[in-house]
């Protein structure tokens, strides 16, 4: 009886400890998710009339929406373009500034600077880099005698331009995580491998990289979330144009909700995004996590 | 206004008390009416300072009203801010929003007509005092919902030095489409490919620029009720073909889309000899250009024309009668001829009423700086800006078509046919319900 009581008290104690997080998550994550799901089964009210229940109609419309597929494809390319590049770049920069080199603090700061700029400010700077006639890039190309590119106005190049800017913005942030991880690797490992005569190349692949795997996983998830979550720069750079060439999923949601006043369609797209993200996250935590070596 | 109000209220008081009241100035025990207003700035420059200055001046003259003016980004951002505030139960009493948001605001049941708030004949007169061309986007079914404030048309800016260097008459801007293409090509050639002939922005508000081309070709893109659009009409297709030909056939304009936000800089750095842009940029160009420039009406094909653009004052529902009256007082003060004149001089936006061009300040300004009158003179050839129900979707369809044609993804005809189909789908319910 006494044991049972103590057990129950422990349970209540535990539940109370969980409560603040549960309340916050419930209010700001689960409740909106459920509301979004419910919204996606309705059509918006017509001239003041209440919303009309239509079941899965929004989803069938979405499946046939060419713009949606275009935008989804863009987002996939955007993810493939930004995630591996920014991670590789971050790792490279971290290795570089982890070594002994003159002015190390300065270089670290330089790499980190893009991260502290707000996305909107960064996009405004890059807009003038990319401007076809007066922009930095075309001036440089012009000095080499090359004719310039319409970086944001040519549908074949625009998405790549947006990707390049994103990588520039994100790599420095991920570098910080790698730098911290690198500094926690015990120096004895390096000394031992030097005694064994291991080449730097195989030391990196056999020792450093596996030890960095938890960081890589963390950074990978963050990069993926950012690829779907951060669209601030589109407002400044392209507004999703030309002709949807740089439109991304979240921006499309925004357009539907706030430019077209079609909240329920926006909700439908949101539900689809959530499903895809949930699938990817599950995959990551089951497959990749098992192969990750935690110290 | 306020002085009269104070007098009637204190009519029963003794002269002594009256003196005392006046002496105590703005610190009287009167309850203040608080107003919230969102406003956009879509062109570069320190216009927020100008608005803040005007608001401060108003509050000084009307101590019983306090105005909380919130700068909320461009037109789209401002609409989002205002609509979110309404949904949160915290509606502003008035706002400056895009003139073409009228249909969407009506559909969201967010605004009221000025006719409902107006009481006296004098106010009715004030309502009739604006340029009719600027009222087009603000009226529906005989009711007025939008009062013109920061309004513009598209004008042609040209660089006189560049014209001279290309052997053209620096004082003569192009009269029609053909001349514009020829002059632009001439500049391009004379500069050895260093300078472009003309730039028409195709991001930001492509539909607006396209509307100008279409109207110059004698074609209106929508009906007055906002329920139908006519994008794939032969006259519209021809207009888009001309726009595309400026880069493809005449090599006078860069390929691809041209960024709205950096275009002014392009013109100021002489990367282009001509640009089409809002009059809202006039003062900034005047301050920054290191060369001689002129401003002209847009060239014509079968007729002259430009859509109007810019922001109107709207009154919002869910405010008390007292707040609505105070909002009226503020809007009347802001659109007063003297203020409209000052605002126009400060920015390049139009004086919104004939009376504002009669003021000494604006008369002198126009005399000394002739370009300031171009927007006004063009008004007689102006058409309403593209406004329909489902405006966001419809404009987006047209924007995409324009960009697809300019970047060579589709022919103008294909692109406009697709835009027409998309717009028809969006407007289906509205066409039926009429």
Question: What this model shows, in words?
Answer:
The complex is a heterodimer of chains A (295) and B (434). Chain A is an all-alpha fold and 295 residues long. Chain A has helices at 2-39, 57-64, 66-98, 104-116, 119-130, 136-143, 158-183, 187-196, 200-211, 213-229, 232-237, 249-259, 263-291, and strands at residues 42-43, 52-53. A two-stranded antiparallel sheet of chain A has the order 1-2. In chain A, helix 12 runs antiparallel to helix 13 (263-291). The mean pLDDT of chain A is 88. By secondary structure, chain B is α/β, with parallel strands linked by helices. Chain B folds into 2 domains: 28-152 and 309-382, Periplasmic binding protein-like II (D-Maltodextrin-Binding Protein, domain 2, 3-Layer(aba) Sandwich), CATH 3.40.190; 153-308 and 387-433, Periplasmic binding protein-like II (D-Maltodextrin-Binding Protein, domain 2). Chain B is built from 21 helices and 12 strands. Chain A binds chain B through residues 46-48, 127-128, 131-135, 150, 152-155, 236, 238-239, 241-244, 255, 258-262, and chain B through 76, 79-80, 83, 104, 107-109, 196, 202-204, 254-259, 261-262, 265-266, 269, 271-272, 390, 392-393, 396, 399-401, 403-404, 406-407, 409, 429, 433.
């Amino acid at each position: 009886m006494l044991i049972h009581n103590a057990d129950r008290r422990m349970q209540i104690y535990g539940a109370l400890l969980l409560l603040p997080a549960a309340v916050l998550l419930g209010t700001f994550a689960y409740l909106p998710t459920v509301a979004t799901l419910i919204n996606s089964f309705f059509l918006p009210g017509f001239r003041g009339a209440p919303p009309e229940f239509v079941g899965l109609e929004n989803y069938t419309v979405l499946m046939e929406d060419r713009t949606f597929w275009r935008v989804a494809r863009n987002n996939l390319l955007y993810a493939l373009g930004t995630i591996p590049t920014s991670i590789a770049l971050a790792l490279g920069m971290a290795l570089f500034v982890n070594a002994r080199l003159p002015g190390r603090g300065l270089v670290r700061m330089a790499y980190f600077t893009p991260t502290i700029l707000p996305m909107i400010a960064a996009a405004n700077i890059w807009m003038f880099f990319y401007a076809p006639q007066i922009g930095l890039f075309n001036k440089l190309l012009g000095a080499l005698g090359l004719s310039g590119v319409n970086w944001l106005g040519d549908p074949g190049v625009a998405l790549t331009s947006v990707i390049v800017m994103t990588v520039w913005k994100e790599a420095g942030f991920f570098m910080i995580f790698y730098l911290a991880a690198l500094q926690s690797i015990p120096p004895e490992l390096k000394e031992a491998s030097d005694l064994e005569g291991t080449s730097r190349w195989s030391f990196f692949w056999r020792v450093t990289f596996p030890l960095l795997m938890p960081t890589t996983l963390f950074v990978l998830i963050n990069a993926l979330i950012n690829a779907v979550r951060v669209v601030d720069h589109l407002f400044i750079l392209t507004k999703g144009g030309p002709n949807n060439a740089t439109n991304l999923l979240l921006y499309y949601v925004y357009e539907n909700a706030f430019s077209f006043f079609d909240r329920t369609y926006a909700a439908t797209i949101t539900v689809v995004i959530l499903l895809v993200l949930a699938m990817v996250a599950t995959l990551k935590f089951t497959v990749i996590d098992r192969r990750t070596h935690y110290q | 206004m306020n002085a009269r109000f104070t007098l009637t209220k204190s009519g029963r008081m003794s002269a002594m008390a009256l003196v005392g009241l006046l002496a105590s100035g703005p610190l009287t025990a009167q309850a203040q009416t608080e107003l919230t207003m969102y406003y956009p700035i879509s062109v570069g420059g320190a216009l927020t300072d100008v608005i803040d200055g005007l608001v401060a001046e108003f509050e000084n003259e009307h101590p019983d009203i306090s105005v909380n003016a919130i700068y909320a980004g461009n037109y789209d951002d401002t609409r989002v801010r205002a609509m979110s505030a309404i949904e949160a139960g915290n509606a502003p009493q008035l706002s400056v929003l895009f003139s073409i948001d009228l249909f969407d605001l009506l559909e969201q049941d967010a605004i009221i007509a000025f006719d409902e708030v107006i009481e006296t004949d004098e106010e009715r007169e004030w309502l009739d005092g604006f340029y009719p061309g600027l009222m087009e986007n603000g009226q529906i079914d005989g009711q007025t919902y939008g009062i013109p404030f920061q309004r513009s048309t598209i004008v042609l800016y040209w660089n006189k030095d560049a014209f001279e260097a290309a052997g053209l008459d620096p004082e003569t801007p192009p009269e029609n489409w053909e001349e514009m293409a020829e002059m632009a090509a001439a500049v391009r050639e004379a500069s050895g490919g260093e300078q472009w002939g003309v730039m028409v922005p195709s991001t930001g508000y492509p539909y607006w620029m396209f509307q100008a081309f279409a109207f110059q070709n004698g074609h209106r893109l929508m009906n007055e009720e906002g329920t139908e659009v006519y994008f794939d009409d032969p006259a519209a297709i021809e207009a888009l073909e001309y726009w595309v030909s400026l880069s493809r056939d005449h090599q006078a304009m860069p390929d691809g889309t041209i960024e709205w936000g950096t275009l002014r800089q392009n013109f100021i750095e002489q990367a282009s000899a001509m640009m089409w842009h809002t009059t809202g940029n006039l003062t900034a160009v005047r301050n920054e250009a290191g060369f001689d420039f002129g401003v002209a009406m847009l060239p014509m094909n079968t007729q002259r024309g430009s859509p109007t653009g810019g922001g109107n004052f709207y009154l919002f529902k869910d405010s008390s009668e007292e707040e609505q009256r105070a909002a009226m007082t503020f809007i009347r003060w802001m659109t007063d001829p003297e203020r409209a004149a000052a605002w126009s001089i400060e920015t390049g936006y139009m004086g919104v009423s004939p009376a504002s061009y009669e003021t000494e300040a604006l008369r002198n300004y126009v005399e000394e700086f002739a370009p300031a009158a171009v927007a006004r003179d063009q008004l007689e050839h102006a058409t309403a800006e593209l406004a329909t129900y489902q405006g966001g979707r419809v404009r987006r369809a047209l924007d995409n078509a324009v960009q697809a044609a300019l970047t060579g993804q589709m022919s103008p005809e294909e692109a406009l046919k697709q835009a027409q189909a998309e717009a028809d789908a969006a407007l289906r319910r509205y066409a039926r319900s009429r």
